[in-house]
Amino acid sequence: MSTIFSQIVEGEIPARIVYEDETTVAFLDANPLAPGHTLVIPRDEYERLNDVPDDIAADLYDTVHRMVPAVEESVDADATTVAFNNGEAAGQEVLHVHCHIVPRFEGDGGGPIHAIAGDRPDLDDDDLDDIAADIESRA
């Protein structure tokens, strides 16, 4: 089943495309959180970051890296929040990998990325050591 983003890539749904190359497309979010809110996607459908092949992931990052200053300068933003929602539990609504570049402005009322998690876990040093070792063993 084709996602709305794949339909944009195929030209079946109109979008304000601001950049495209052989493997990625960037376009304005149809429901922006700020002026200039841009999405960067791989042309091919991958549900989660874990599914994206290494070469496409590198291309995706290259496009994000190119677009951040372009977006900031275009809307005279003071900063940007750059983020992926990776899976439905994280708030991913379209199951096609996409990076949000959200322009930020002094006094915009938005919070830092740490504000998204709700209650923070109570972890001691042993817990942190165990988690770090487990992640390191899988990397």
TrEMBL record:
It holds the Pfam family HIT. It comes from Natrinema gari JCM 14663. Residues 4-111 form the HIT domain. Residues 122-133 have a biased composition (Acidic residues). This is Histidine triad (HIT) protein. The active site is at residue 98. GO terms for molecular function: catalytic activity. It comes from the Archaea. A motif (Histidine triad motif) lies at residues 96-100. GO terms for biological process: nucleotide metabolic process. InterPro entries: Histidine_triad_HIT (IPR001310), HIT-like (IPR011146), HIT-like_sf (IPR036265). Residues 112-139 are annotated as: Disordered.
